[in-house]
Amino acid sequence: MDTASSTPRSPLHIQHVTVVGCGTMGNGIAQVFATCGFAVELVDLSAPALEKAMSTIARNLDRVVAKGGLDHESRDAALARIHCGTSLAEATHQADLVVEAATENRQIKLELFRQLDQLSPASCILATNTSSISITDIAGATRRPAQVIGMHFMNPVPVMKLVEIIKGYNTDPVVTATIVELSHRLGKIPVEANDYPGFVANRILMPMINEAIHTLYEGVAGVAEIDTVMKLGMAHPMGPLQLADFIGLDVCLAILRVLHDGFGQAKYAPCPLLVKMVSSGNLGVKTGKGFYAYQAGSKDLLVAPEFR
Ligand code: 3HC
């Protein structure tokens, strides 16, 4: 078989980690690896986005220092471990592990993995932070499907303990064990899942969010009321509509479409209100408006004018 694969390194030998994509998830993943002592290459197509990501990481590390979770020297050392760049070739040439956290789009990920396979060392493990796209499908774009795995972090990455580890159809059990061990080294709790639409996290979370949007759409209750029921009644830290804004309504819609296509069942069809909000560009926190209206620097939760 013409394959680029070679024996993956043990978790203790993983030192150089490349994170592809510096958005919310990518910068959080880079922060966690750097804080735990790994040398991180953070790569993105956009230099201004990388600058913004570094200031976000610095700000988030300052929060941890202010709370006594890290001393100043460790904070500075963590930041110094992150090197940014726009060249995928430079960022991957000595990677032991790549964690891809680019846009949640199947075609983009397939092309990226084709390139990552060409550019990274043969022993390198290629992980994806996809929320729902098939790992087996992504692995098929490479010559090393046994070394491709899902490493699904939760937002905000530095805070949330879970990493969902998704095994593709061809993922080598040694690779799975390596990534499980590595997740423990990051102070996370890994949970293994098989490669079916939405895996575990989003297969359960997204129908709840979609149902909350239907509840609003049908006029059963308002935005604040729906979220209050779930916060106070079920002890969720955020109501489902606030959580949808936090994740990004475009991301929620993309995941629901994967579930709907993958299972072919009407129960996964995205609510028309969600589809309309995404078409209108109201995507939640990142655009300043979704079910709530957001103001930079303010923690106040104001229902968006159209839902008042
Ligand atoms: N970096 C470092 N620390 C951070 C941080 C960050 N980016 N964001 C928050 N924190 C810390 C704060 O400093 C604070 O620390 P402390 O407990 O030591 O004081 C703590 O997290 C709580 O933050 P805040 O006080 O600012 O705010 P809240 O108490 O309201 O908590 C929250 C914020 C942790 C986001 C909480 O509301 C929550 O858990 N929400 C639900 C999050 C969730 O469900 N995430 C999963 C989304 S689904 C997903 O990601 C999968 C994808 O595929 C869709």
Annotate the secondary structure layout.
Blueprint: E1 16-20, H1 24-35, E2 39-43, H2 47-66, H3 72-80, E3 82-85, H4 88-92, E4 97-100, H5 106-119, E5 125-128, H6 135-139, E6 148-153, E7 162-167, H7 173-185, E8 189-194, H8 201-217, H9 223-234, H10 240-247, H11 249-263, H12 272-279, E9 292-293, E10 302-303
Parallel strand pairs: 1-2, 1-4, 2-3, 4-5, 5-6, 7-8
Antiparallel strand pairs: 6-7, 9-10
Helix pairs in contact: 1-2, 8-10, 8-11
The structure holds 3-hydroxybutanoyl-coenzyme A.
Notes on the protein architecture:
The chain is an alpha/beta fold and 308 residues long. It folds into two domains: 11-194, NAD(P)-binding Rossmann-like Domain (Rossmann fold), CATH 3.40.50.720; 202-307, N-(1-d-carboxylethyl)-l-norvaline Dehydrogenase, domain 2 (Orthogonal Bundle). It contains twelve helices and ten strands. It has helices spanning 24-35, 47-66, 72-80, 88-92, 106-119, 135-139, 173-185, 201-217, 223-234, 240-247, 249-263, 272-279; strands at 16-20, 39-43, 82-85, 97-100, 125-128, 148-153, 162-167, 189-194, 292-293, 302-303. An eight-stranded mixed beta sheet has the order 3-2-1-4-5-6-7-8, with helices on both faces. β5 (125-128), α6 and β6 form a beta-alpha-beta unit. α1 crosses α2 (47-66). The chain starts with 15 loop residues before the first strand and ends in a 5-residue tail after the last strand. Residues 60, 63-64, 67, 131, 154-156, 158-160, 201-202, 205, 237-238, 243, 247, 251 line the site of 3-hydroxybutanoyl-coenzyme A.
